[in-house]
Structures are given as C-alpha cells and as structure tokens.
C-alpha cells in the first residue's frame, strides 16, 4: 500500500506540466520496481550501504538506460534539465515507491555538478557520460586523520612528475571507497603552503597500484567508511579541476552541492526511516504516549523543514555554485537524523537493548541509533557548521583561536 505520510506536497499548487511529470515518474517506478527489481525495495541507506550493492547497482543502471539519472543536469551534459520542482517531485515519488538507496549519488550530486561548473570541456566529455550511465562510481577524498572538520589542514601531497600527478598521503572516513572507480581528492600541491593556500582538486583512479583501502568496522558491525592510503598513486596531469592551488574554492563548492540537491536524495532514506518508526510506534503502542507522539510529530516537522531548506538552497544557486548558507542543511539533517535514532530506541523501549541474535545481529532501529551518532561529526561537525554560519553568513566576529 502506498502511503502519503509526510510527503509535504501541495498538488493544487503544481502546474499541469509538473502534475504530468509526477504521473510519469510514479508510473515508471511502479512498472519497473517489479520482477528482478521487486526485492530491491527499501534496501540501502545510511548505515546500510552494505545491503545488496550489486542489485542496487543493476537497478540504477536500469534507471540510467531509461533516462532517470542526473535529472537536474543540463541536457547538453546528459541530464534532462529538470526544474527544481521536478527534481523535488522525483525524490518524493522515489521515496513513496520504496525504491532502493542510490549507489551513484556521489558522482551524480557532487562530482558531476562540480565538473559542470569548473571543469574543462575535455573533462566534461570524459567524466560526465559514465556518471550518467552509472558506469563509473566515485568517492570523496577530503578528510584525513589530522584534518577532519578542519579541512584546511589537509596534508596529502601531490607532485607533478613527467606529466602525471603522484599522490602520497592518507584519507579517512571515505564512503564507498571499496566500490569506487575514482576519487576526487583535495591535495597539497605547493610545498611549504599552509591552510587554504596551495591545495588542488585532483581526480585519482582508485583501481591501481599505490592505492590501498582498509574498511573501518563501525559500532554497527558494518563498514560504510574506509581508510584510503595513497603511496605514489598516479593521476594524469589533466585530471585537475580548476587551476593548481585553487582547490579550496572548488572543494567548498562541492560541499555546497552536497548540502543542496544531494540532500533530497538522502531524504529518500530519511523519510522511509521516519515512516518505519511511526509504524513501529503503532505496533508497540508507543504512539499512545503523548510525549512520544509529540516527538514523532516534531520529527515529521523537522523533515519537512529539511526538505524546504534543500529546495531553497537549490533555487538560490540555480545560476551558480552554492554558498556558505548550505552549511544550514548539514547542521539540520545531521541533528535531525541523530535524534530520529534516539526516538527509535525510545519507541522500542527495553527491547532495544538486546541484540536479535548472536554474535551481534542488530535490527534496523539499533543500527540507525548507532550509525546516526556520527551524523553530527562527519562531513563537517555541528560545531564547525555553526562557525561557518556565524562568520561567513551572519558576519559575526571570527572565533578566537587558541595559542597552544
């Protein structure tokens, strides 16, 4: 049964063209999430990226063949030139259909828009078509052991030698590194440079000697994140986006894309999780507790605010790269998702303290609770996001730096 819980749609305000587009999306999903793909419904998402990856990849390539990837990209770059309203409609219907979490979202939502905005014609011709077709998957090489939220502290080095970049260093918390064909990595290319200066944005093949991937086992027992070690890994000299030393500006633009349209795809899983918590509360009787019922209502309101803010961010940057205001999205969704995990455990009650089986068989809500503890830390901690909003959006005085 399809449920309309929490879609936030206002059909009366949609144009005739948007209503037709919604019907097209809905009909295609209902027709195609069947047969070999029927079992893919509901798979994947935060803390569950390990689930049925080959099946989800096959599904996404099936979508690509039918023209349902990279909707918002310009037509000349392989997209459909979909409006902001149409992209929102697609993500709403995708969530309602229970379609699986996407596997190519890093390339589609982060690297692709960055190359469209800052890349060369040759880079667009080389890298965009395989993203549209889901033939090449990407991961993001930003965080390092000593440069997590403080991204300006990146120390991974890249040196131009004989027409190739030689990359040496370590990245950490790299999502989907084990599945990725390529990594867009922020590297220090000017010896002796510090902080934001001297950084470059490089495109590095992952399947080569000189790249080692070590999965990080999380509290959930799964490994969505990885360490990546570069030991003289090679990238063609042309695989630099923008000019040498201009990496910080481009990396920040990528983060803006991540916190704009990409969050709509992320919310596919969030909405499904919220509906699951509501249904769990009905089964356990927790919905009769006025305090829990209030928290469920607030969770729904928070998700709607998140959606509207993502739409606002997308609409505001339709003609260029996102600005620092996109930090609001990260702050909102990170906090919301962590609180949803806490709410799920409270709905479960005492049963949430016991694993389903040996040795460590967690249910979906226990995994949600444990995994979402990281949401306010990775991709820029809440503290860092508040500083960015305060200093770069509101124009408040910069935070004093310690002298130790």
Number of strands: 8
Structural class: alpha+beta
Tell me the strand order in the biggest sheet: 1-4-5-8
Oligomer: single chain
- Helix count equals 11
Q: Level of helix content? A: 40-55%
Strand content: 5-15%
Radius of gyration: 21 Å
Main sheet properties: 4 strands, mixed
Reading the helices and strands in chain order gives HHHHHEEEEEEEEHHHHHH
Summarize model confidence as the mean pLDDT. 87
First-to-last CA distance: 60 Å
Q: Could you name the key traits of this structure?
A:
alpha+beta, four-stranded antiparallel β-sheet, 8 strands, globular, disordered N terminus
Describe the structure.
This protein has helices spanning 16-32, 53-65, 84-96, 105-118, 121-132, 247-258, 261-284, 290-316, 327-348, 364-371, 382-393, and strands at residues 138-141, 157-161, 164-171, 182-188, 199-205, 211-215, 226-236, 240-241. The protein has 404 residues and is α+β, with helices and mostly antiparallel strands. It has a four-stranded mixed beta sheet with strand order 1-4-5-8. The protein has a four-stranded antiparallel beta sheet with strand order 2-3-7-6, with no helix packed on it. α4 (105-118) runs antiparallel to α5 (121-132).
Brief overview:
With 404 residues, the protein is an alpha+beta fold.
Write the layout of secondary structure elements.
Blueprint: H1 16-32, H2 53-65, H3 84-96, H4 105-118, H5 121-132, E1 138-141, E2 157-161, E3 164-171, E4 182-188, E5 199-205, E6 211-215, E7 226-236, E8 240-241, H6 247-258, H7 261-284, H8 290-316, H9 327-348, H10 364-371, H11 382-393
